[in-house]
Write a structure and sequence with these properties.
The chain has helices at 2-24, 39-42, 48-51, 165-170, 187-193, 230-241; strands spanning 59-60, 72-74, 82-85, 90-93, 101-104, 107-117, 123-124, 127-128, 131-138, 145-154, 178-179, 201-206, 217-222, 226-228. With 259 residues, the chain is of the alpha+beta class. The strands form two sheets. Strands 2, 3, 4, 5, 6, 9, 10, 11, 12, 13 and 14 form an eleven-stranded mixed β-sheet that branches. The protein has a three-stranded mixed β-sheet with strand order 1-7-8, with no helix packed on it. GO terms for molecular function: carbonate dehydratase activity; zinc ion binding. It catalyses: hydrogencarbonate + H(+) = CO2 + H2O.
Length: 259
Amino acid sequence: MKSFLILTIVLSLILVSSNFAAEHGAYFDYEGYTGPGYWSQLDVKYRMCGVGQKQSPINFHTNIDYASVSPYVYMQNVNYVRMENNGHTIELSSPQWQNSFINFDSTNYYFKQVHFHTPSEHRINGIHMDLEAHFVFEDPNTKRKAVVGVLYYIDPLGTNSNFIDPIITWAPRTKGNATYNVFVDIASVFSLVREAGPNWAYRYSGSLTTPPCHESVTWWVATKQLPISATQLVFNLRVYMGFNSRPTQSRNGRTVPGY
């Protein structure tokens, strides 16, 4: 009877695990046999991570790549933000962000969430920055994504990021936990990057940088990098997230011409 009970429990756990994988995809990470070099082998849903021709991130060359006339942006600060530690990153979302959007090619893409990678996934002239924030927008009709990437560098003068401050204060330290009702000054980030002028971002066609690596993303990577203090990154965000940066992918003929 006892052996039968143990077997039943084990089979139940296997079934739950299988159902979770079927719904959410197989577990992935950034090192070893679950790292980026193996993502395409972990789950049939992740096949594009290995065979895709428009994968992200990429490296930008400032002598040949040109920023585009960048999208119209409307970002609204809200008082209710949910922060989640999902085991790979810190992710912020809010139903009150439904009115925030960017517009390009006569289409509105509405703001869904922002998350972080350290070090940066995109490179400038072959060099990583210390942190990259991904602001994810979506066309509700086609479900295509537009992602604005903002790169941060550790300021030797110790300048804090006002955007990052409440995140390191309230972000959950352990996987699966979330905090609520947090104010984050997200609009200020876009005000700062747009100081670079009307052509404030590199535009290119790419993919999600995490499985399933779908190639349905228009990327806008800000040309202006923003400061963050070592205290904010090294002793806080990096501790919560660890290394979570996908290697640079081949361009496969893609250009960043600016237009």
